[in-house]
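pls read this stuff:
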Amino acid sequence: MTAVPRLVLSAPSSGHGTNALSVGLLAALADRGLDVAGFKVGPDHVDAAYLGLAAGRPGRNLDPRLIGADRLGPLFAHGAQGAALALVQGTMGLYDSVAGRPEAESTAAVATALRSPVVLVIDVAAMGQSVAALVHGFRSYDEQLWLGGVILTQVASGRHESMLREALDDVGMPVYGALRRHELPPVLPARRHGVVPVLGRDAEASRAVRRLGEAVAGTVDLERLLALARSAPALSVPAWSPATGTPVGETPVVALAGGPGGSYGHPETAELLRAAGAQVVTVDPLRDEALPAGTRALVVGGALPESYARDLSANRRLCIAVAELARTGRPVLAEGTGLLWLARELDGLPMCGVLDAIGVSRDGLVVGYREATAQSDSVVAGTGATVVGYKQHGAVLTPRSGQRAAWSWEGGTPEGFVWRGVHASQLGLHWAAYPEIATRLVTAAALPSPVEGVAAPA
């Protein structure tokens, strides 16, 4: 049972300012001394990271496709423990779903599952009284949805605001804020930097979050929003727990790629590893020149940006250390750009050389969910196990897979590499849906080194 006050921020479509407003709201409330928590609907690591930076605790993803609808409530309750407000930032439009399953995977579906009021963020730059018809349609479309009010962005003037408020008052829709065109500045670091500014605790990222907080504090009625959040009923779900069984006897050191502000994976990954008995130590692949002392396994999450390929390549000492760890048969799990890092080279830049493959960047992105089947026994899964993962990458590898592929899915050729203790693929998983991965990895890390002699990477 959780009675955490909560709100879902969504919009009619992408581009209405929901991300900046969500970050600003959390920053403004945290600056008032409230303990707040941030969540992102869908697989976007970047938005979740900035929500976490604003809240002062890890931002988490609530993705029904990756974690399963039955885990939404428990994972929310886990991440929101002790918070005076939990804010959930939606994805795309309120009723949209990438996979065409809005009844289960849209922001509206998540809000309904969490019994949370929704505040619709609307860019009104080119809109007048029609805003009332828009809001009325969104409210009427789903009777189960609780549309509690709106926040207006890109308001042109005081006269424009009065017109909008009068139209919305006619349909009984509360307005919690109206931001002028200059009052929600595009100050967050460029998305090509991914989560790196947050993990590195860069001053630019902190300043951007602070500016958004100041903008929101001066334009949004925070007290009325808090009152709406506190009106959400209690959720009768138990909080998710990373404890999955008895930890292994030893406490092996597992290096988790990241920085001072967190890892390149979901926060639940580190929590599951610790619960399984590991000592989790962060290694920064962009700055650290050695693995943590006593490292018995390495995990590289899927949020490592491809745009930092030159920095990864330049860190030759760490590349050599990673290659040696893999050569000795220790578990090395790499998702997304982690796979490219383990390759021989990427765009002509030398990488770790663990895998005999070459990466090349292309225009455009490969994006989407995959229902995958394990093609080889590995530290991640046994042959034939099925998972749901997410892909988002520009660079591709040649060959696409090794002699032992990691995954296959309908309509695609086998992908990824399984070699000794290595499991590398551009498919990213949410470990909360597959907690056995942490147990398998920590168990393998606690074993004696399986390889004593020298062998060339495959």
Summary: The two ends are 50 Å apart (CA to CA). Residues 453-458 have pLDDT under 50 and may be disordered.
